[in-house]
Amino acid sequence: MAMKIRLARGGSKKRPFYRIVAADSRMPRDGRFIEKLGTYNPLLPKDSEERVKMDMERVQHWLSQGAQPTDRVARMLEAAGVREKAERNNPNKGTPGKKAQERAEEKAAKAAEAAEAAADAE
């Protein structure tokens, strides 16, 4: 059975609240889970101790059983010091989109034309 440690959403509309759960990866996000491992309340300030609460003993147990944390839960575990920080690199995130690149090319072409016209005038 492929196990995941992931977030299950609760709370009302525009007021999210998440349970950190150990669940079979084939189950739906908010569906059946095996064990509740903690809670995450994104509405609280980042420095609040109540924002993320986890039963570390049970999290360690599930990790030793081969459960894979999702990216968001893995970041929480890194912040808690349970996992070592993973190297993340997304070189495409910083690159501008297609339209922005086209605008930059147009701007560069206009600047080149203006410089050429200034050189011809002299």
Structure description:
Keywords: Ribonucleoprotein, Ribosomal protein. The mean pLDDT is 89. The protein has helices at residues 56-64, 71-80, 98-121, and strands spanning 3-10, 17-24, 35-40, 52-54, 68-69. It has a 5-stranded mixed beta sheet. It has 122 residues and is α+β, with helices and mostly antiparallel strands. The chain has a domain at 3-80: S16 Ribosomal Protein, Chain: A, CATH 3.30.1320.
Helix content: 25-40%
**Given this structure, which CATH class of the domain at 3-80 is correct?**
Alpha Beta
The SSE order reads EEEEHEHH
Shape: elongated
User: Order of strands in the sheet with the most strands?
Assistant: 4-3-2-1-5
Count every beta strand, where a strand is a DSSP E run of 2 or more residues.
5
The CATH topology label of the domain at 3-80 is S16 Ribosomal Protein, Chain: A
Relevant CATH superfamily of the domain at 3-80: Ribosomal protein S16
Structural class by helix and strand composition = alpha+beta
Backbone CA Rg:
24 Å
Q: Give the low-pLDDT segments.
A: none
Just name the CATH architecture of the domain at 3-80. Answer: 2-Layer Sandwich
Give the rounded overall mean pLDDT. Answer: 89
Strand-residue fraction? 15-25%
